[in-house]
Specification:
The protein contains ten helices and 15 strands. It is an alpha/beta fold. 48% of the residues are buried.
């Protein structure tokens, strides 16, 4: 199987390339940087070829994909700076990447008959209520530019190809790039206490675990829309960012005080964020895909792999 990965320099793209390589698949990674910045995590170092590619350039996308002629495209590339997306000067660029770029990828996938895996987000919903969002819910109402642009990308994928997997995730963290865990470990070096929101509820997604699932999906034809985050410790025991932070510091052996605040009290975000980021993952399991491990286990492995803790 031949796999084409966009966003190879990001957290998820990096892990997808490595997971595909472990299984012996021919893979090419793409991104806007001139060179792939893979990480040697001690288990595998990717040797996949890398192409510099701007997904907003329709001709470049079609030329690259038709030349490689993949069986599967895993589309990880996206504008993910949620607050920066709210700036007026960035809005067109955000939509150009997340909506227009995804349209270009979907058209090229259809052209070569490739399966397409599109990574989306809980931000396509408005975060109201407490009921976990189901994969086939249609009550879309994104609160911010990022969510609107990712929803537009979903629409393009559904419109332009039938062989698609739309996989919504939340609270991603991985070895490559920036993430919440890295931020919390960094800020505690200069602060005795940190304020963290306690009314945004969901579960994290470790990109290494997600990458395994995505390649599992690529090996099937069980197309559709799915939700995929790491599992709760107990059924429906979703957590807040405050809970997540306390567990980060507990596992890292740190005594930093964590102070719970509401989103309104925190008040530092340009973008409105959903309070309810609970994602129901039952559809994924009903289709025979293995659930991602518990988020606490995922965090433990991440901290080991980054050298923050030792066995």
């Amino acid at each position: 199987m031949k796999i084409f990965v966009t966003g190879a320099n990001g957290q998820l793209g990096h892990d997808v390339i490595n997971e595909a390589g472990k299984r012996g698949y021919q893979t090419v990674g793409t991104g806007t940087k001139p060179q792939y910045s893979g990480i040697d995590d001690g288990s595998f170092v990717t040797t996949a070829p890398y192409l510099s590619l701007d997904i907003t350039n329709k001709k470049a996308v079609q030329d690259s994909i038709t030349a490689f002629h993949p069986d599967v495209i895993v589309h990880c590339a996206a504008w993910t700076a949620v607050d920066d997306a709210e700036d007026a000067e960035n809005k067109d660029r955000v939509f150009s990447i997340n909506a227009g770029g995804s349209r270009n990828i979907a058209e090229a996938a259809n052209l070569v008959g490739a399966k397409l895996i599109y990574i989306s987000t809980d931000y396509v919903f408005d975060g109201s209520g407490t009921r976990p969002w189901e994969a086939d819910d249609k009550c879309y109402a994104p609160l911010n530019i990022y969510g609107q642009s990712k929803l537009a990308g979903e629409s393009a994928v559904r419109e332009l190809t039938e062989k698609y997997f739309i996989v919504r995730i939340a609270w991603a963290f991985g070895l490559s790039g920036n993430n919440f865990v890295k931020t919390m470990l960094r800020v505690r070096k200069t602060r005795a206490a940190v304020r963290v929101v306690s009314d945004q509820i969901g579960t994290p997604t470790y990109t290494r675990d997600l990458a395994r699932l995505l390649i599992d999906m690529a090996e099937t034809e069980k197309y559709g829309t799915y939700h995929a985050t790491n599992s709760e410790e107990k059924p429906n025991s979703y957590i807040s960012w405050f809970d997540f932070t306390r567990e980060i510091y507990r596992q890292a052996g740190l005594s930093t005080e964590v102070i719970p605040v509401t989103t309104a009290e925190y008040g530092q975000s340009k973008a409105k964020r959903p309070l309810n980021s609970r994602l129901d993952k039952q559809k994924m399991e009903k289709e025979g895909f293995s659930p991602l491990p518990c988020w606490k286990d995922a965090l433990h492995r991440y901290l080991l792999e980054t050298g923050e803790i030792s066995e």
